[in-house]
Write a structure and sequence with these properties.
The structure is a single chain. By secondary structure, the chain is of the alpha/beta class. The protein contains 8 helices and 9 strands. The chain has helices spanning 6-13, 23-33, 81-90, 98-105, 121-124, 128-131, 149-158, 182-198; strands at residues 41-48, 60-64, 75-78, 94-96, 113-116, 160-164, 170-177, 209-216, 222-224. The strands form 3 sheets. It has a 4-stranded antiparallel beta sheet, covered by helices on one side. Strands 4-3-5 form a 3-stranded parallel beta sheet, with helices on both faces.
Length: 229
Amino acid sequence: MARLTKKQKEAKAKIEKGKLYSVDEASALIKEITNTKFDASVDIAVRLGVDPRKANQMVRGVVSLPHGTGKDVKVLALVTPDKEAEAKEAGADFVGLQEYLDKIKGGWTDVDVIITMPSVMGKLGPLGRVLGPRGLMPNPKTGTVTMDIAKAVSEVKAGKIDFKVDKTGIVHAAIGKSSFSADKIAGNANELLQTLMKLKPTASKGTYVKSIFMSSTMSPSVAVDPKIG
């Protein structure tokens, strides 16, 4: 097991063992225990009482974080020529179609989100092996397959993220940066948690939110009270 550095030990000492913090307390504590020289990402992990192997217990959705992600999200708009100007004006970083399909086929995936149109989805099918594992395949449920390209690009740039429960029942999401104020981190966390509550599957029995942990890049995790969350 790797030995903890002096800073890591000091950070861990600030977390009260066995305590479940409120979202506000955890957000403030994350800022206090983050000692990276770069602007660390703040992440949240929510363990849900669902069985993701069953279709009626799959939890997936989108949320617009009120304070953004703090990340410059690189967007590729795979659109027909008549939609190119709209995508560029909305702020898409890469705009086009066949040239980018060819680049992806060659292994290029240097983007965070791909937005496209229903008529183009057929061309993306053969690229599933490249895009799927990286979570880049556009999906109508997350608003990334649409005719309103401008709206989709603008929302993603402003802080709209999509999330999906993994096979172990956990939803992982980046909710900001350590440079954010504690209020902004808490605001983003609460927005995600409220969205998750609305998405509770009717087939899910027992405790829905089992645990919540908040952390930043290289910081220890802070346990959040799931009842408060």
